[in-house]
Amino acid sequence: MDERGAFARAHSRLTAAPELVPWPTDRLWAEARAALGRSLVRNAARLGPARRHAEAIAHGLDRLADLFDELTPATCAVCPDPCCGHAKVWLDFKDLLFLHLIREPLPPHQLRRNLHEPCRYLGREGCRLTRRSRPWICTWYICPLQRQVLERDIPGGGFQADELRTRIKSLRAAMESAFLDAVGHGAALS
Asked: What is the mean pLDDT of the chain?
């Protein structure tokens, strides 16, 4: 199968129907992981910029994790309707690419098979995935109560979280672009 065509088809399917969970079955999840892994091996010599962006994302996520470690016990633990219980999230292409580039263990399954079931990694005490292994949206979203606690209880917390989230969002786009350039398909997803 033509790599360029596969990336373009996958991207157009996801943008045309964003309500569909990508790679919902274990077979499709394994195929996506394997295909991306093969692309990374084939293009390893040209992936330096993408890897540097991924490493910068990891550093930013680690800094955000420090904030969230202070924040979640004071918010999520007392929330009557935690976001994680009803959010419609999954690992997208950038999440999968990031995890491959930093060699972080990938979850054995996509987070959900469809939009009607809960996340498989939500446990009684919250998410069972590391902060780095979670979909970006799970770290990006800050609920109103978390925003209030950030601004009230953590000096500079709101500003720091906003700056880190903005930087990570930009780095994710740069990482994807650098990857597509490395595999010779920069125009495939434009």
From this structure: 87
